Amino acid sequence: MDPDEFRRVGHEVVDWIADYRSRVEGFPVRSPVEPGWVRGQLAGLPERGEGFDGLLADLDRVVLPGTTHWQHPGFFAYFPSNASLPSVLGDLLSSGLGVQGMLWSTSPAATEVEQHLMDELVGALGLPPSFVGGGVIQDTASSAALVAVLAALHRSSGGTWRRSGVDGTETVYVSSQTHSSLERAARLAGLGEQAVRAVEVDSRLAMRADDLAARVRSDVAAGRRPVLVCATVGTTGTGAVDPVREIAAVCAEHGIWLHVDAAWAGPAALCPEFRDLFDGVDRADSFTANAHKWMLTAFDVSLFWTAHPDVLVDALTILPEYLRNTATESGAVVDYRDWQIPLGRRFRALKLWSVLRWYGLEGIREHLRGHVELAALLESWVDASDDWELVVPRSLSLLTIAHRSGDDATRAAMDRVNASGDAFVTHTTVDGRFAIRVAIGAEATREHHVRALWDALRLRD
Amino acid sequence: MDPDEFRRVGHEVVDWIADYRSRVEGFPVRSPVEPGWVRGQLAGLPERGEGFDGLLADLDRVVLPGTTHWQHPGFFAYFPSNASLPSVLGDLLSSGLGVQGMLWSTSPAATEVEQHLMDELVGALGLPPSFVGGGVIQDTASSAALVAVLAALHRSSGGTWRRSGVDGTETVYVSSQTHSSLERAARLAGLGEQAVRAVEVDSRLAMRADDLAARVRSDVAAGRRPVLVCATVGTTGTGAVDPVREIAAVCAEHGIWLHVDAAWAGPAALCPEFRDLFDGVDRADSFTANAHKWMLTAFDVSLFWTAHPDVLVDALTILPEYLRNTATESGAVVDYRDWQIPLGRRFRALKLWSVLRWYGLEGIREHLRGHVELAALLESWVDASDDWELVVPRSLSLLTIAHRSGDDATRAAMDRVNASGDAFVTHTTVDGRFAIRVAIGAEATREHHVRALWDALRLRD
Question: Which intervals of the chain form a coiled coil (chains A, B) (predicted)?
């Protein structure tokens, strides 16, 4: 495909996406296809090349029916995965440049734009100055959790971990509400699930710092080595907020790495009125917030900061001959390959840059505040209802609700809504009770979509 | 940005990329900027949103001078990182759809198109039928290596690894030529570098199966537990090919997981005439080949197959309440989140699909063969030269060459070529000797580019 062909076909593809986004509301949010249906529609690989029309036709014929539409205004499931159109174009520019930013020298701009944005966001989010110079884009919060665990293991070992591996005494602390990626990170790091302590939560499902302290003391007394605590600002289940400052005090006492997972809620720190939720983050060793959830940036941009980039780099670096270069050896540059699990990396900062410039910080705040306002509105309707209730307090734009008459009614309402195609919600359990999560955050969601969801949930009340 | 704005700005972005690709040859391949220059040009984050023009202007003003141009026809460094224009559009479609394929149910098409392509490629690449149903797209070969190590640890432990972690007796086998990602994977998995055995290589820098067998026997006798061997088809340094079939025999005898890393050379298996290089892969437990290196697909698409997807999934799966869904519980679907390090995932199969359909298998073979022919031509010139020589035999489209008068001359020639901006090569060492790698593989590279490189290398002979 030469540049002129790309121009022609590229315009068609842009138009296809514009058309898709214009009509996304017309699709059932959750794909109704049965397992195997999509594969049954697909042809074998062609020996001879073909034009782009066939692919676009297959998108309409096969892919769209087989798609769960995350950009649909009726998408209230999981957490939002904003892929705003400016970010789509930023990512297109990244693919178009086709650079590989594993080393500073393999594309200085890929590294320096990322450094610049990450440093600027420290101020914009009210993060501690200790994070300046410690920011990097990870693909996901799961990977961010894993690199935090690895850096913590390295530090805790006094630097012997790289050579000797884990010794089986390391322990990691989460709560029952912490994202599963932490338990998984401990597993992948070779600690096994036996190393993971599930700290008690209070009635708001927040980690209890006193129970954390007790478990740490008990583990230390038993000859174990506490390595990392993960505190969460906005848990995946219900949006609970752990008491970061209290947890930080326990960590400081025992030299434990404090990782703060704010994958979903993190961008809310752009708004001063929500910043209380992040109290104590100034004492964290690492922090993560996903721009690809609620901050308008197409997957995959997980913002990760650490106050100890030297530890992270020392844990992850490896320098074979074929990667040696003058810039690296000068010590004057950052090579982001040493900050992440993969070696290669895309110029992901471009899609973040596109978002920050197109919307501006104020535009992103409006995006966030709008969803919180919609959630508060839904909360008021739930509070006024005889049949539904909040299972835990609203957290920003996330509500966890259940039918008062029991799990069967809650589940039936969820299944009915999801089958309708007009909205899509997912569930969690709270103290064994089945509850619907309403995560408001799609860019196109407006009041009438939330109203329609509420009406649909109550249809058979 | 509404769909109509996207249409307008999107056309501009497509045109910007078309223009960039048209004039890419006019840029110095390797960016000449000094550390910090790019950052010095950048403004703070805007409070108010702005149009897209400013970003495009900054791309021209700051990013392009700060870019090392991987799509330049004079790019002979590292390995190629093909970002063909059809793949750019496939990736654009993925961003435009904005779906998140962590579970089958979160977008059935994202999973099933990927399954379909990976299964079809088993046949096209001549891979063993045992890999059908075991294919998945990883971001990079480094991540593929890590998941192979994790699956191997799980299997080797008899299933106790998830719970108990590593026990410190595990050993992993590589050669001095194996990609550093394997040693790093062992480190990340908690084994430490002490677990990694560097098997001897022969005069062609291929792993010696007899030395592997001796080391395994010695480790077993010492109470160690051999877990994984990584054989490479096309090493990063020089393109050496390990004797996979002989290595597989050692692995089979001791129940060791055999991972075959063909990150760069793998796509060559599409051509029957190169398939001998892959002899023995039918006995591998896992295999990886990067579509984003030499197979025209924009980063990041690393093709990974395993004959034991059940082991991989059992090693990596974790199922919190909020991810439970009917399709997963039916057992009728694959949830790719269980096959990779991150939880979330893009619809990466779209860019691979775009490439396979636009070029067809025959078009991709032409791409590969063209580069091998250019490399053979350069080889003939080197062979006819009094001053230069091949340090090791040519491997497909990779040549490793040095000046006969010694390292200083070789290094001077490399520095001169790279400073010229017309071409970019990187180096390796072979038995302590400094050597230039000429990795031919950019989509736009033609004979006159290789000729120009050769002329430039000899400028002061």
Answer: none
Q: State yes or no: pLDDT of A461 exceeds 80.
A: no
Which burial class, exposed, middle or buried, applies to B452 when counting CB atoms under 10 A from its CB (0-12, 13-18, 19+)? middle
Question: What single letter denotes the amino acid at residue A355?
Answer: V
Would residue B192 count as lying in a domain? Answer: yes
- Name B276's Cβ contacts closer than 8 Å, sequence gap at least 6: none
Asked whether the predicted pLDDT for residue B461 surpasses 60, the reply is no
Which residues of chain A lie closer than 8 angstroms to B15, CB-CB? 7
Whether residue A108 and residue B21 make contact (CB cut-off 8 A), yes or no, is no
| Digit-coded pLDDT (tens) for A192-208 | 999 999 999 999 999 99
Distance from CA of B219 to the nearest CA of A (A): 17
Q: Which of A86, A108, A183 sits opposite B33 (nearest CB)?
A: A108
Are A113 and B15 in contact (CB < 8 Å)? no
- Per residue in A64-116, pLDDT (tens digit) is 999 999 999 999 999 999 999 999 999 999 999 999 999 999 999 999 999 99
Which tens digits make up the pLDDT trace of A104-163? 999 999 999 999 999 999 999 999 999 999 999 999 999 999 999 999 999 999 999 999
pLDDT surpasses 90 at A408: yes
Residue B108 to residue A21, Cβ atoms within 8 A: no
Quote the domain boundaries for residue A317: 99-346
Q: Is residue A141 part of a domain?
A: yes
pLDDT at B44 over 70: yes
Q: Sign (positive/negative) of CA torsion B267, B272, B274, B278?
A: positive
Contacts of B161 in chain A (CB under 8 A): 187, 192
Strand order, beta sheet including A388-390:
A388-390, A398-403, A433-439, A426-430
Q: Assess if residue A134 is contained within a domain.
A: yes
Element holding B278 (H helix, E strand): none
CB A300 to CB B21 under 8 A? no
The CATH number of whichever domain residue A195 belongs to comes to 3.40.640.10
Question: Nearest chain A Cα to B65, which residue?
Answer: A109
Cβ-Cβ contacts under 8 Å, B191 against chain A = 165, 190
Predicted pLDDT of residue B224: 98
A213 lies in a domain? yes
User: Is A67 in Cβ contact with B107 (below 8 Å)?
Assistant: yes
* N-to-C CA span, chain B: 58
Count of structural domains within chain B: 1
pLDDT in tens, B56-81: 999 999 999 999 999 999 999 999 99
Q: What is the pLDDT of residues A258-311, one digit of tens each?
A: 999 999 999 999 999 999 999 999 999 999 999 999 999 999 999 999 999 999
A294 to chain B: which residues are within 8 Å by CB?
A: none
